[in-house]
Fold:
Amino acid sequence: MHIWAIANQKGGVGKTTTTLALGRGLAMLGHRVLMIDLDPHASLTRAFDVPAEPPPSGVLDLFATPPADLSSLARASEVEHLGYVCAQTALATLERRSANQPGLGLAMQQALTRHAGQHDYILLDCPPTLGLLMINALAAADRVIIPTQAEPLALHGLTSMVRTVDMVERSRRRPLPTSILPTLFDKRTRAGNDTLRQMQDSYGDRVWSDAIPVDTKICNVKALTLAAMPSGYAGRGLAAYRRALEWLIASDAVPMEQAA
Ligand SMILES: Nc1ncnc2c1ncn2[C@@H]1O[C@H](COP(=O)(O)OP(=O)(O)O)[C@@H](O)[C@H]1O
Ligand SMILES: [Mg+2]
Structure:
């Protein structure tokens, strides 16, 4: 079982879009995929048309005593082999309510350990804040994918995120390979091209040598949840995600010591 956390402390960089595009892509290759929505904003959950009220069962139930079983929270999607677990908006209050409960940072890892063997890939769509939920994702993951908008201001967010991953890696004493995915790239702008080069100079082969372009078709994330996507949907953005997936699968094949 591969566990990929899709994380960046900045919002609006394409985390949810990346989770859905990679999740769908992996399922189309025949892998059994479970996407877990860890963001109280619940964008991934909404893409599947799950209403916020009444609150669906979901990630919050993994933090209950006793915790729910992940299998009981997984919902099937229209796409064969592609399942998901909902986020509830009450996740936003989890950190405050659980301040005095030690050990909650490992709730996701424990849930996934109990769940082992039922899926080939688990994709964790993280919130844009460094808190209990992101720490849970990074503690459980065996790879972190950092979607980063190819524009100058996003570089600060990338630096903080890489620092966070380094910190988690040291505390858990297990490698956490990082893959940086440039997103929302506009090749016509100088700022976009400069940022891409800076990412590559700073982070070398941890950065995908290509980029996900700006493509307005992909804003309709609901299309990614359908077995048959509306005609005309498959554009440059989706094609780029397919290439990104090939790169990620190939890097997963590299032994951990080399990848870290
Ligand atoms: N490649 C892209 N081209 C154009 N718009 C995009 C692209 N990727 C994401 N978006 C749009 O940008 C916004 C933020 O994307 P999202 O995946 O929700 O980011 P995050 O999860 O990091 O907050 C959404 O409106 C989404 O539709
Ligand atoms: Mg999101």
Summary: The first strand starts at residue 2 and ends at 6. Residues 256-260 have pLDDT under 50 and may be disordered.
